[in-house]
Amino acid sequence: MEAVKEQKKEPAKPKKDVVIEINGLKKAFGKKQVLKDINLEVDRGENLVVLGKSGEGKSVTIECIVGLLKPDAGSLKVFGDEVTNMNDKQLKELRMKIGFLFQSGALYDSMTVRENLEFPLTRVLKLTDEHEIEERIKEVLDGVGLLDAIDKLPADLSGGMRKRIGLARTLIIKPEIMLYDEPTTGLDPITSKEISELILSMQKKYKTTSIIITHDMECARIAADRIVVMDDGEYIAEGTFDALHKSKNEIVKAFFNDIL
Amino acid sequence: MDAVQEQELTGWRKWAASVGDQCIFFSRFFKNIFAGGFEWSEFVRQCYEIGYRSMMLVGITSFIMGAVLILQLRPSLVAFGEESMLPITLTVSLVREIGPVITALICSGKIASSIGAELGSMKVTEQIDAMEVSGANPLQYLVVTRILAVTFMVPLLTVIGDAIGLIGGFIAMNITDNISYVLYFHKCVASIDFSDFLPAFVKTIFFGFAIGFVGCYKGFNSNKGTASVGIAANSAVVTASLWVFVIDAMAVQITSILFYK
User: Fold this and answer.
1) For chain A, what is the domain count?
2) What is the CATH number of the domain that holds A204?
3) What is the value of pTM for the model shown?
């Protein structure tokens, strides 16, 4: 992997607190090898953006992290525990610490916004105190600026609002890790920017570690502490937004072409 | 994603993998019934959606079926001078066979398809994945409640359908003959006993389970594409209908051995 660093002497780094550690991860669907050899470390509190073409397996990586997919080979540790060997109970405990924002928002369309937000509180955290549930719902809805939408159905919300509610639903259980699967895809530039800024502000507020899968360079610029670029099932470049902007690699340059 | 879907299997291997997958799905369903935290409110909601909302369709169909059976049977029985046997013939055929099978087939069409399409659509829009990654149990919330609701409601719908079918028969009889409702229903009730009602009732429980299970399995395991929602719904109806006939054939054999030997 090409490690692109900014051209200045870096001070000695403090000891890393690695939250996600991936080594030699491989995954194939039929004959197509989607992940060839993924190696990655994500530090606590870091916002990592993964860039790459469609169908390169960016989403597959984060689906492996939450155990939705089982990798064919390699090691995948979250909080030091090997995910690939976890049983259902361990996986459930891990998932309670991870928030996953799907590309579509994945709101439960037969439930209102309130019921969508209640669902993880009553089913996952097993909260029974109605006052506490109401408080937490209002807190996260206020955080994403959609307190007025509390009794609406997902069908009555715009794409951007659905993403915000999806974000609120994942944040309501106060996860330590947030995984975003193309959070700004299909949104207009203004809403995309709002969502990207919301991701950043939520990360600061809840002090989460995040992996953001995106094609949106504006989202990467706003939210990323570090970016990795994926091509043909492998990470080919890594660095900050400014450092990758100056990269000579043709694939990396293709992503930054339109950025001034 | 399930292991079966990830591999490109063909022929008997695909069939065997699918059977294995259904066995695993069944064991997961069974385990989740007793896992604690049963979703009572969702179960009651599903009973309302599945049972109450199917009642009109089952009622109309059973009414017509009862009336048509009387009108079709009458010429044959009149030829033997046995038109007084009409209520008895109708009751026995309706309670033993036609009522349960017709109700189950209607439920296969209405309920299995709606469950298959609903869960298939939830799969496509990643709602099931969202439930799973949040640490909630989609199987307990979506599958256990639906299968148990269908298993519970199909027998009830059958009993209601049988009763409405008899009313349809009474009205049809009074088109050509003149029979009091007291005499008609007395003949109906007197013509059946425990061995007519119980096996028929028990098999509707299996019909209900098969309809719910097939609908949930097809929807829960549909692929991630818009077309797969239609495929899941269609496949659920076809498979559930087929299972109704298979269970019916097995039930006839068992009933014959136990009650009519």
Assistant:
1) 1
2) 3.40.50.300
3) 0.85
